[in-house]
């Protein structure tokens, strides 16, 4: 379908008014219905702040957060005079972009964007997060399998299989719009109308009513279009027998068409109508409401009269519904002027008079009805009604009393996401549109099913990508928390997810802020299974800036700059700026250089944030700061508004030049520089896609093939995989190949450390291995390699060979025997005339482990008995070895020492600690059984302990056993099971509660008898409050039934043991045997063969004190016993 060019007419005031919801209580002072001048953005913000001076903004459902979302998005679009762009302004920007696109050379744009989702995520069944907001769901009246759903900034989606799969419908015809109303033609289901814009939160503006005649494949304007459309539209309805007649509710009246949308008349001009319904069986009777008035028409909506009898004299918002079960019944739910619950009102005479029902329960549970309020009446029972604000409530007696049928923080059978925007019945099924998606109940709200899977509607605020691979992404979403991507999506923290950043040196470490920086969440497994929360030092901006420098230091920007570590929390670095910081950029080359943006002012520090200098003030607010990855003197800044600039400094921010050039008048939200690119490619994310610039082309070009025309709020670049990632506000995450660029003449790149990998576990000796790539044009024949272990002396050698341009090679380092524990490896590669030495280094942390011996009991009495322990997110390990002295947990099973979560008292909150066993070859043991003694005092169903195992060296871990196994866990609960408002960390099998007497626990390992390398770990996970002593554990080992090919333990006697030098060994009835003595790393220190005497001495006087293992082999039998040398 050809796009229609518009002749933009002079608009009414309502098409030029601010985008914010007029029903919000702080908007009353503006008297928008009678106002004759535009409202400035800052005036709205000031009114909001004044309103909240005497109210608590932190109460769930207060209505505070929805405004802050709106403010954070629209503050970047205001012009130099402080006004929000009008619908006409924004539409004209779209037309300008379309006109430019029509004349561009399609071969110049090398982008090939694809969607990465999220359309689902791994912990969706337990997390209270979800995909994104859904405003409306409509069922095709001719085909029950076809559904349409509208999102606030993600347009319209279609399912042809009852919601199991979804397809986005709007691609090229429109900018990425919001949809708040949908209607399908009952006489021709290929004809679909949409009312555009986001009616509740203002996440997108209205461009009128659009129409499709091919089932949503293509779209065209109707007579209510960007030249005359109100800024907000709500519901749209069609005459039940005449499909040429439609009504649409808007913030400037109720509009009606009698010719299928060609022309429209406004029959309630100037009125902010929020809802419209048609009397079942009588389309001449039309109902609509403003924030405080109920209107009724008896002539098909051509004229209206106000109904007051029985309704409140004043209110903040009204919503209506009707039912075919009794066409004369009309229900109205009313919010008071503070957006709290006011009452349910029922009419039995087609809306002529109303009576308030008896219900006095606060079914809103909040004061955010200006943002979300929904009402539905059963289509078969006039007395069954549902109201949703924070949760969904149900009445079966016509609204006289209600019961709450679900709770947003419990993932049980009746769960829906919080914030209910839409409720409607189709064929006795209840459909709900929430801030987390679309849910449906077929049993009166007893259970709901989530049908959002497949929609790409997430609204991302910020994103980041790993330096090492494009398969790892972190990001924060509106009202659905922080998401981590590692070839699959997982939700790793709640709230509104804001900045999400990844450690450049350890891409398993994800950091994510929630709103205002109230909590920082740290994940050490790429966001795949939860996180540790750390309270922020104060409240910052709605989107509080967060960054990690090249050395792994984490910074958060509030009213001052803070540095964060898991061991010390937040430490103030700078002085107080007197207002919140908006932008934070750390020089990737010189971490001492830090830039801040506060409103339109750029600040710079050269001492890691201790002192700052005001270096530049721009005409509008700063939207993004970027330091050139190759040259610290080069700095880029983008500024707000469609006429905002792109500025460049070549002297470290002291002076700037304008490089905006021919960039179209589109708001620039973010700028990124491509690392190690001789052409200095720049990418800019805007409210309408992505643009690119390099030194060779010298002009800004579109870079948006296949990318929806959507606001790109953030960009991230991975140069190793040559990918660019876009975070969008309404269509999730997208990825494209980077544009082709030139290679440097000479450049070597350390691609990766292949072995060991970051945080991996290796049993025995290890041979480090690296991959390098010739990233330059010239052949490389010599590479200097420098490496060190644990910060020790450097080892140097030169690789010789032939490495052609863009080829890779693998280089092995020296085989190492390292003691059990945590280690670090630093590697660098160098060549002559290397253009980009910043891609030559790698530093990783890894663990080496040693072999565990069957039947050898670890009593934890000696330093040699130390096991590997660490916490998720780092910091001082929770598990510690020593003498337990707690009030209740104070007894070892043998000796005096144990491993415990705190040997002298209560464990800390918000900690997930791991204690790892040695590596066991279970294939060599018959009937292996894991055994240990344990006592515990754990907060019941809040904190917990459990055992996991790995078969792949720690790449993945699985829960060992269930509560049904004998002598094992005492709880089988799992997070979100609906059995209580707790157990949020439960994994399906765990110990919780109290049993303070040491007892032996055991688990049959017969299922693993073919596994040569198994590691176990004890996990302790504490929640955010209330602590007890936790766990103590002793005498850990793997037992096994000895086969006929093995000695009995009693066949060998060793004395003395421990010994200072000489061990006496006595064997029963053995005539010929061999033996070896190995240290804890498996290195043989003594051995002998063909011994025929039954008694012999081991002289260990020349060996260091410690733990050793004696292995005896005789007549095909073997036995290993422990030797302790003092």
Which radius of gyration do the C-alpha atoms yield? 34 Å
Span between N and C termini? 87 Å
- Low-confidence blocks of residues: 1-18
CATH architecture of the domain at 280-456: 7 Propeller
CATH topology of the domain at 280-456: Methylamine Dehydrogenase, Chain H
Q: What is the general shape?
A: globular
* Alpha-beta content class: mainly beta
What is the tally of beta strands? Answer: 81
As a percent range, the share of strand residues is: 35-45%
Largest sheet: 5 strands, mixed
Residue-averaged pLDDT: 91
Residue share in helix: under 10%
CATH class term of the domain at 280-456 = Mainly Beta
Number of alpha- plus pi-helical segments: 3
CATH homologous superfamily descriptor of the domain at 280-456: YVTN repeat-like/Quinoprotein amine dehydrogenase
**Order of strands in the sheet with most strands:** 58-64-63-60-61
